[in-house]
Amino acid sequence: MAVKACGIPREAGTTRSGSPIAISTAIAKAQIGAAGSSPAAEHLQRPQSRHILSASRANTEEYPMRVLVSIIALSVLVVACAPPAATTTPAPPPAAEHAPFELLRPNVTLEADPPPPFTYWAPEGSTIRNHGNPGLWVAYLNGRQIIYFGDACRASEWQRYVGEPLSSLPPAPEGMILRTYCTTCAKTDDLRQDRINVVFEQSTQVITEIACH
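Given the sequence above, the corresponding structure tokens read:
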């Protein structure tokens, strides 16, 4: 049989309801039960839920920024740890090739068969005929004869230096036979069509002729 003491139910056979401990315990349980379903309790719980959602949103919004910061930090670290770029001295450019040099083309009369490979060596208005020796040609002008020994030594490629100082002459390529002498200097008269001869004026040191002989 249940009895009531101060409005608080008590089972029969329990201690008296007048016990302060029993009364206090019952009141506390009643207050807690009422608070759990009251609007005040819901009001107390909602801020906590909002706080959790706000924290979750903050974490979600901060995540891309954290990723970006991590990427920037990693990039800086990679750059800082990368070995310094080697400071190499650029290789010198290859020897500059001369611009094509246009050889002279004097107005001459060709009576040679076969004709010479070039006519730059012949005076203007001269007549070119074959020499008695194959590979040689002669230009005739007013009783004067100029012998051309062909281009076996590739003298045509050196004509750009005619009229230039002797000091401008480059070193002879490997295998080339090069001979220099002045217009009044003594020289041997042996004929070698694979030898390039550079003739210069003694007083001015200016090249006057380049030919194969």
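The first strand starts at residue 3 and ends at 5. Try to locate this feature in the token string yourself.
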